[in-house]
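[step 3/7] inverse_fold.run input=structure_tokens len=715
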């Protein structure tokens, strides 16, 4: 039963949460298909594990904001990644995160069949709509093999993200690559570009080759055919760590893919070291390959010398990661930031004290949540460091404790130090789990000092937001050159939080010493690296933190100096102009991401946003009439106001969501009484300004909406 919840439901939908009865947007003009093994779509959906999924989600959020003609494919993961549990000594255990797509997402209404493991496997899909600031939708299709008629083993293939053994993983990647191509064919989507976000989706090259041959055997495929497929594919590699490049035995390849596909993969030179290496398969079937930071591009070029490796530095979706106080400040001072992140540079026209005040609110919010979770109290005035990321040995979470005596002396000298850690180790990573226990042990050994250390359990989207928004300094200590990019420091920087980091990945491009943060000096030994870390902490960071005005100025530099570049709006534009459509000029390619589907507004059309079951106790056989939006009228338009009214056909609760072009939304108050002819007066509008309006009406069982645009006359 929906009751009078229309505005909340509409706002819920517009902020990216899917509802079951929203019709699919037009897919015919989608020119780029984005494939990723994991995508962070919503804090409530366990379809991601860490940085790769977050980057994918931020990419699609920017695509939605800029009306890019994209579509995305991933797997549904009915049992998620995992929930982390830590005992008193840091021993990690895991539990599943089950959820039901049937009660959460609309169906794609398509079932396709792929051949694998010597049998047919049926694959369906669920749709998640990523909705941009102006209402543009990027549909994400989550593939699912849990269908009646499938073998029991096959039904479990889309249960666990990064779960199971190598055989399970190859089967999953077969579903992603081959099943994803088959689904897009069934949906009538004909992308010009397929973007593989990591090598997990590399088998889509084989799927496209089969499509090109039109049912003819793969043995008839030629080098010309492979080259034609490569012209349609872009591949982004995300890690220089060998374990990050999936590889499978030839016996597994033939068992899962069959003799015809296995032979073709061998014939076209896609094996590496006598193994099916998904990175090399992706390289073979791509015309454009890139790393995710300038340094990572160079490292990847050394790893794959037979291929030309470019570099497009990662970014983050600003509106997802900025704290609410910072967003409110920017909306008041620089409202253009929401559609053009270059405007972050204008933060230099904002008083640093206002930025510091926003961060103080975020820090208070972080500490309140930490207290709620742990029962421990923390000092909002004390210098607070944050270290949070996937736990792997090369990330060296324990480097900070290399010399605990010196760290304790520094803490005493500067008046105390607070440190928050967070991060999950893969369930099969014994060494990573050991690192968590090491941090717990170090925290216990320093308990009597002036250092307060807490390892926060179950690092996820929401905790990442709290930490990157609320700590004072972001710490990152990877072993060079294994940090491909790293995006958590970017999220911190957008919130005015400087980094103390090893010069690797993105930080080589982002670090301006004493301006946006500090570099841990390059060294050949951990002794020297730790010494540099301690020197910067004691002699640069702590003294500056003790000067509030100077610290606020650094916070300003972090936003203004890094926000303009380390964002996914800029990153996506570079993909359009360098990877997707390199044959076009900048003027031709960049507007494509903004204007191609600008007409896809469902304007003047009554659209069902949400349908619920009948209200409890409703009389059988007497369903509530469904509302509609008809006869919309906009009248009495002045430079600063307008009246909008419509007819619904049945008593409803109604309201209007209206927003200036690329600015925050405003909500009219809910209509107090049910009405079949709602009317609203919009006040305090700006003269000569375009406004987008979303009209909504709801009964007990359904919410509908319609959109239109109004331009107020000039003064």
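[step 3/7] decode complete -> sequence:
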């Amino acid at each position: 039963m929906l009751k009078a919840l229309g505005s909340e439901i509409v706002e819920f939908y517009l902020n990216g949460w899917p509802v079951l009865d929203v019709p699919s947007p037009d897919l015919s003009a989608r020119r780029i298909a984005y494939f990723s093994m994991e995508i962070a779509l919503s804090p409530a959906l366990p379809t991601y594990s860490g940085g790769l999924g977050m980057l994918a989600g931020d990419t699609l959020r920017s695509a939605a904001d800029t009306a890019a003609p994209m579509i995305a494919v991933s797997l549904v993961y009915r049992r998620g990644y995992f929930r982390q549990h830590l005992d008193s000594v840091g021993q990690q255990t895991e539990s599943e995160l089950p959820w039901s797509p049937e009660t959460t997402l609309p169906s794609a209404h398509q079932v396709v069949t792929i051949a694998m493991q010597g049998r047919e496997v049926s694959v369906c899909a669920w749709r998640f709509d990523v909705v941009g600031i102006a209402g543009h939708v990027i549909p994400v299709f989550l593939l699912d093999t849990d269908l009646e008629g499938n073998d029991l083993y096959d039904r479990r293939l889309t249960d666990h993200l990064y779960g199971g053994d190598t055989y399970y993983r190859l089967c999953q990647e077969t579903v992603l690559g081959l099943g994803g191509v088959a689904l897009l064919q069934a949906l009538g989507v004909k992308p010009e570009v397929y973007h593989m976000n990591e090598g997990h989706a590399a088998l889509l090259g084989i799927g496209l080759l089969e499509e090109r041959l039109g049912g003819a055997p793969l043995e008839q495929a030629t080098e010309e055919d492979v080259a034609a497929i490569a012209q349609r594919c872009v591949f982004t590699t995300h890690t220089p760590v060998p374990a990050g490049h999936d590889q499978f035995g030839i016996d597994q390849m033939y068992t899962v893919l069959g003799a015809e596909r296995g032979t073709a993969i061998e014939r076209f030179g896609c094996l590496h070291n006598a193994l099916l290496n998904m990175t090399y398969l992706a390289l073979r079937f791509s015309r454009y390959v890139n790393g995710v930071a300038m340094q990572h591009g160079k490292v990847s070029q050394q790893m794959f010398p037979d291929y030309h490796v470019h570099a497009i530095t990662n970014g983050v979706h600003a509106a997802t990661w900025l704290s609410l106080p910072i967003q409110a400040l920017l909306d008041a001072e620089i409202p253009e930031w929401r559609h053009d992140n270059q405007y972050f540079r204008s933060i230099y026209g904002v008083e640093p004290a206002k930025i510091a005040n926003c961060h103080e609110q975020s820090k208070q919010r972080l500490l309140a949540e930490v207290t709620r979770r742990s029962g421990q109290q923390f000092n909002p005035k004390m210098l607070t460091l944050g270290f949070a990321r996937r736990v792997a040995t090369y990330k060296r979470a324990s480097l900070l404790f290399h010399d605990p005596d010196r760290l304790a002396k520094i803490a005493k000298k500067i008046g105390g130090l607070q440190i928050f850690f967070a991060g999950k180790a893969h369930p099969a990573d014994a060494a990573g789990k050991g690192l968590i226990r090491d941090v717990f042990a170090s925290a216990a050994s320093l308990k009597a000092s002036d250092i307060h250390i807490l390892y926060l359990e179950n690092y996820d989207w929401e905790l990442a937001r709290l930490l990157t928004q609320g700590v004072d300094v972001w710490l990152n200590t990877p072993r060079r050159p294994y940090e491909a990019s790293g995006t958590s420091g970017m999220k911190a920087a957008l919130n005015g939080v400087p980094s103390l980091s090893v010069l690797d990945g993105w930080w080589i491009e982002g670090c301006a010493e004493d301006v946006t943060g500090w570099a841990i000096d390059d060294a050949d030994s951990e002794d020297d690296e730790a010494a540099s870390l301690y020197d910067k902490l004691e002699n640069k960071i702590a003294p500056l933190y003790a000067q509030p005005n100077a610290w606020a100025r650094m916070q300003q530099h972090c936003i203004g100096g890094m926000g303009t570049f380390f964002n996914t709006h800029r990153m996506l534009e570079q993909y359009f102009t360098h990877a997707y459509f390199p044959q076009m000029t900048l003027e031709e390619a960049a507007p494509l991401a903004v204007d191609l589907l600008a007409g896809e507004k469902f304007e003047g059309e009554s659209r069902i946003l949400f349908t619920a079951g009948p209200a409890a106790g409703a009389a059988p056989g007497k369903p509530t009439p469904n509302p509609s939006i008809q006869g919309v009228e906009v009248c009495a338009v002045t430079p600063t106001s307008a009246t909008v009214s419509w007819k619904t056909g049945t008593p409803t609760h109604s309201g209007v969501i209206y927003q200036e072009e690329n600015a925050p939304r405003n909500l009219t108050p809910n209509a107090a009484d049910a009405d079949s002819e709602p009317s609203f007066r919009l006040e305090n509008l700006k003269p000569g300004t375009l406004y987008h309006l979303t009209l909504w009406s709801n009964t007990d069982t359904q919410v509908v909406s319609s959109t239109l645009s109004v331009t107020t006359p000039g003064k």
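[step 4/7] annotate
The radius of gyration is 26 Å.
Residues 1-18, 594-621 have pLDDT under 50 and may be disordered.
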